[in-house]
Amino acid sequence: MNTAATLATLLPSALHQVEPRERPRLNDNLLAFYADYYPDHALLLCCFDNAEAQRAKPLLLWYRPADPDLLVAPALDCHTGGVPSLDASVPVDHLVAFGTDEGPADWGWPVAYSPGLRHKLRQLLPAAVIGQPFHGELPNGDFAITHDDLLAGDPARIRRLSPAG
User: Fold this and answer.
1) CA-based nearest residue to 30, from 86, 81, 73, 79
2) CA distance 155 to 107
3) Which of 67, 146, 109 is nearest to 158 (CA)?
4) For the segment 112-163, what is each residue's pLDDT rounded down to a tens digit?
């Protein structure tokens, strides 16, 4: 079901539109955190019944970035269901990749997709990406790269970005 709330703190009032068995428990402090640190951002709340996990499909989002010159991969960590600590170092084991439609023909590493991938979906995905693995302890935050740095093709320019500034 597609349900939209304009602010993170409005999500609880939209949950009546979701089947009761698919409604998650929400933490008001966590929603307030997102409303404070990510104002004017869309927040996606996936609602599902774990009993139907076998039928799950990948999720692809297409959105206009708040800053078109900065690509951000959300990665703020907190596995307790509570409010993330912005001062914490967190364990990471990620492969972070970014793509663009504006790179030259020989840019990045080509991506091979499954032959069964629908053409309509394939059109939305990058033909090439740059990226790098991140392991160990890092400051909590999202991963980001400027579009100019992305076009330069240097994955070492991917950095950790805190919502605190």
Assistant:
1) 81
2) 12
3) 146
4) 999 988 888 888 899 999 999 999 999 999 999 999 999 999 999 999 999 8
- Predicted TM-score (pTM) of the model is 0.81
For residue 93, give the H/E element and its range.
strand 89-99
Q: Do 52 and 108 form a contact (C-beta atoms < 8 A)?
A: no
Closest CA to 130 of 98, 93, 105, 158: 98
Q: Summarize pLDDT for 22-62 with one digit per residue, the tens.
A: 998 888 899 899 888 888 787 888 888 888 878 877 778 77
Q: Are residues 45 and 107 in the same domain?
A: no
Q: Which domain holds residue 139?
A: 70-161
